[in-house]
C-alpha cells in the first residue's frame, strides 16, 4: 500500500475514503478534516477562546491536540464523575496531556462541587446513570466555560457518535432532537456555543491519530455503559458499515446536507435563569438542579413546581435526555 498523498509506504488505510496514508500524511488528513469542519460551520475564529471538554478518551484528546496544532487558543475541561478507578485513570491521562502541551486545564469534580457522583446518582435517582452523566456534563461544560471567559465549548463527538445518535433519534422520530443534532449549537441566552469539530472523522480515524501522535488515552469503557442504548445503535451501524463501507458517513453527512434543513426548528424556546443556580432553563429549575435534588433527597421549591411533559417523558424513557439546558433539544444520548 502506498500513501495517497506522497506515494511513500502507507501505515493506515481509510476505507471510507478509499485511501491509505503514511504517518505524516494521515496526521495532515485528520487536521484537514477538522479544519474543513470548522470552516464549513464557521465554528470559531483565531481569536476565540475554545474550551475542549476532555474525557481522557482518544477523541477529545485528539481534538485538543489538533486544535493546539492548528494554533487555536484551546484550554481543556475535565469533569470528575466519580466513576471509581475509571475516572481516576481518565483524569491522569488528561493531566499528563495538558502538562506535556503546557495547556490550561480546568477540573471540576462533581462530588466536591455538587455533592454527588454518577454511580450514586444511578442508584438513587429515577434516571439511568448515563442520563444523569450526560446532563451533568453539559451543565458543567456551560457553567465552567462561562465562569472562565471562554467563547465556545468543543466536544470530541465523532462521526460514529453522531451517526448512532441520529439513528436513535430517527428510530423514535424525535424531531426536536433531530433538529438540534448539528455540529454547531449557536449560543442562546446564558448558553455558550457548542461545536463538534470531529464530526467528519470516524472512531477508527481518531484512534489512528491518537496512536500515531503518541497520545496516551484511557482505552477501557466506562463501567456503567451496560444500559447505554447509544452503544447498541453504534453496533448496528458497525454491522451496516462492515458490509457497505461508507454507510455511516452517507447517513450523517447527507443528513446535514439534505435532511437537517427539513427539521429546522420553528419554535423558539424561552430561557430564563434557574431559580436555584441561575443557569438557563425553560422551567423554574434546571434539569441538573432537579436531578441533583432528587439524588440528595432535597426538595426544590413548592409542590406547584409540577413536572413538565418533557420531564415526565424523560423519566419514563431512560433514552430521552432532559434537554432544558440546551433549550428544548438534545444533541446526543451520552
Ligand atoms: P461521551 O459522553 O462519553 O460520549 O463523550 C462525548 C464527549 O463529551 C467527549 O468527546 C468529550 O468531549 C466530552 N466528555 C465526556 N466525558 C467527559 C468528562 N468526564 N470531562 C470532560 N468532558 C467529557
Ligand atoms: Fe458512563 Fe453511561 S455513565 S457510559
Ligand atoms: Zn439549576
Structural description of this entry:
The protein is 47% helix and 11% strand. It is α/β, with parallel strands linked by helices and 334 residues long. It has a domain at 41-268: HUPs (Rossmann fold), CATH 3.40.50.620. It contains 13 helices and ten strands. Residues 312-334 have low confidence and may be disordered. Helix 1 packs across helix 9 (203-212) and helix 7 (159-171) packs across helix 10. It is globular and about 65 Å long. The strands form three sheets. It has a six-stranded mixed β-sheet with strand order 5-4-3-6-8-7, sandwiched between helices. A hairpin with a 6-residue loop joins strand 9 and strand 10 (280-281). Bound molecules: adenosine monophosphate, FE2/S2 (inorganic) cluster and zinc ion (ZN). Residues 118, 129-130, 133, 222, 224-225, 228 line the site of FE2/S2 (inorganic) cluster. Zinc ion binds next to helix 12.
Task: Classify the helix fraction into a percent range.
Answer: 40-55%
Write the CATH architecture name of one domain: 3-Layer(aba) Sandwich
Q: So, the CATH homologous superfamily of one domain?
A: HUPs
Quaternary structure of the protein: single chain
Query: Biggest sheet, open or closed, and with what strands and sense?
Result: 6 strands, mixed
Q: Whole-number average pLDDT?
A: 89
Give the overall silhouette: globular
Number of E-state strands: 10
In terms of DSSP E residues, the strand content is 5-15%
What pattern of helices and strands is seen along the backbone? EEHEHEHEHHHEHHEEHHHEEHH
Output the structural class: alpha/beta
Strand order of the largest sheet: 5-4-3-6-8-7
Distance between the termini: 37 Å
What is the CATH fold-level name of one domain? Rossmann fold
Amino acid at each position: 500500500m502506498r500513501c495517497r498523498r506522497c506515494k511513500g509506504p502507507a501505515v493506515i488505510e481509510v476505507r471510507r475514503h478509499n485511501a491509505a496514508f503514511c504517518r505524516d500524511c494521515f496526521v495532515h488528513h485528520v487536521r484537514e478534516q477538522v479544519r474543513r469542519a470548522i470552516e464549513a460551520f464557521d465554528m470559531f475564529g483565531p481569536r476565540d477562546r475554545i474550551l475542549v471538554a476532555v474525557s481522557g478518551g482518544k477523541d477529545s484528546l485528539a481534538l485538543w491536540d489538533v486544535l493546539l496544532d492548528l494554533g487555536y487558543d484551546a484550554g481543556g475541561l475535565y469533569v470528575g464523575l466519580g466513576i471509581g478507578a475509571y475516572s481516576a485513570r481518565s483524569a491522569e491521562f488528561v493531566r499528563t496531556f495538558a502538562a506535556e502541551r503546557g495547556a490550561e486545564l480546568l477540573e471540576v469534580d462533581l462530588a466536591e462541587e455538587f455533592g454527588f457522583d454518577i454511580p450514586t446518582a444511578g442508584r438513587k435517582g429515577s434516571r439511568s446513570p448515563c442520563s444523569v452523566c450526560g446532563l451533568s456534563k453539559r451543565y458543567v461544560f456551560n457553567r465552567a466555560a462561562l465562569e472562565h471567559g471562554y467563547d465556545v465549548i468543543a466536544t470530541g463527538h465523532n462521526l460514529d457518535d453522531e451517526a448512532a445518535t441520529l439513528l436513535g433519534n430517527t428510530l423514535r422520530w424525535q424531531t426536536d432532537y433531530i433538529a438540534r443534532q448539528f455540529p454547531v449549537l449557536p449560543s442562546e441566552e446564558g448558553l455558550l456555543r457548542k461545536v463538534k469539530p470531529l464530526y467528519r472523522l470516524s472512531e477508527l480515524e481518531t484512534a489512528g491519530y491518537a496512536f500515531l501522535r503518541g497520545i496516551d488515552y484511557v482505552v477501557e469503557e466506562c463501567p456503567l455503559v451496560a444500559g447505554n442504548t447509544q452503544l447498541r445503535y453504534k453496533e448496528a451501524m458497525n454491522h451496516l458499515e462492515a458490509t457497505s463501507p461508507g454507510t455511516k458517513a452517507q447517513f450523517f453527512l447527507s443528513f446535514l446536507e439534505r435532511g437537517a434543513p427539513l427539521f429546522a426548528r420553528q419554535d423558539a424556546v424561552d430561557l430564563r435563569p434557574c431559580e436555584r443556580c441561575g443557569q438557563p432553563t425553560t422551567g423554574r429549575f434546571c434539569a441538573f438542579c432537579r436531578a441533583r435534588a432528587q439524588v440528595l433527597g432535597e426538595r426544590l421549591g413548592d409542590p406547584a413546581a409540577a413536572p413538565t411533559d418533557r420531564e415526565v417523558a424523560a423519566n419514563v424513557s431512560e433514552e430521552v435526555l432532559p434537554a432544558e439546558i440546551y433549550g428544548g433539544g438534545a444533541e446526543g444520548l451520552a
